[in-house]
Amino acid sequence: MNSYFVFTWYSWPYFVTIALFIGILIGVAFLASKLKQKTVYWLIFGIYAFNFLLHFLKLTFPANMDIFPKSLAKIFPVNLCAVLMIASPFLYLSKWKIGRDYLCIIGFVSGLLALAFRAGDSTSHFDFGTLDGFLEGSRYLLSHFLLMVASILMLNSGIHVLSYKRAYALPLLFMAASALNAVSAIYLFYKGYIGIVDANGHLTQWGTKEGWMALIYRNSGWGNEGFAFGPDPKSDVALLWLYRIMIPYLQTYRYQGLIYFTPVIWEAIPLYLVIYPLTTLFCLCFPKSRREVNLATMYWKQRLSMRRNRR
């Protein structure tokens, strides 16, 4: 591996990519305010359609063709971003407001976190000095960045206006996507397309108790790319406060000394703790969505003023 071309934190490809992406995001925000809304509408659809095709075209990369049909696992919705890339053209055209809320907020945040965490994952750096690394690295960075670009275009142009009143539904959509991740992982394990190792690093087999417990453990690699089975064990120290407020046995339990999480259901409390502040923040960042927050603020100020006057 030529370390000069490896994409990781503080490497020159990292800084060049971040500078380029920031510049493009600023340009996109400016572009959205200058173009006709109809033009922006079809530009956004083009981005989602391109991302959809790119997700499946990665099967044509030499590294994936060499291991076909096992490479089919790479197009299954095993993580949240894969679900977004497959569903985004259809959610966008549907004009379903809750679906578009999900595309804007979860799409932007998922794209941002995917770029940040993949860059810092020492086990999956992209070596742009090789053909396979260049193709997969370019696809990964571009596809996740485009999720962010489409979100900004949609919100800055006013094609979609966020509402915190619909925020209650976003965790439900998130959990539905996470459930699809879990079902995909189970199917791929059953077909033998992915291997699942247990907590001790031993390869397990489908149809055994050890295989099932390894699959639903949080450190199962491909089996838990969407965190359907719980957060990565590396986060345990930072998230200990969160584990303590979860409902025992319904959301979390112990087995052979290890902490396990009830698939998908464990996400409910964390999601509802985060989603309302996150939705409000997004609303405040975009003028066309800010109006509703301002109206809500005025409403509650009037209510408080009326209560004081009664006293």
Fold and architecture overview:
There is one protein chain. This protein is 62% helix and 4% strand. It is mainly alpha-helical and 311 residues long. It has three domains: 3-162, no CATH class; 183-268, no CATH class; 280-311, no CATH class. The strands form two sheets. A two-stranded antiparallel sheet has the order 1-2. The longest helix has 27 residues, at 131-157. The radius of gyration is 21 Å and the shape is globular. The chain starts with 5 loop residues before the first strand and ends with a helix.
Outline of the structure:
It contains eleven helices and four strands; from the N terminus they run E-H-H-H-H-H-E-H-H-H-H-E-E-H-H. The chain starts with 5 loop residues before the first strand and ends with a helix. The protein has helices at 12-34, 37-57, 62-66, 80-94, 97-119, 131-157, 170-191, 209-215, 236-244, 268-285, 287-310, and strands spanning 6-7, 126-127, 252-255, 258-261.
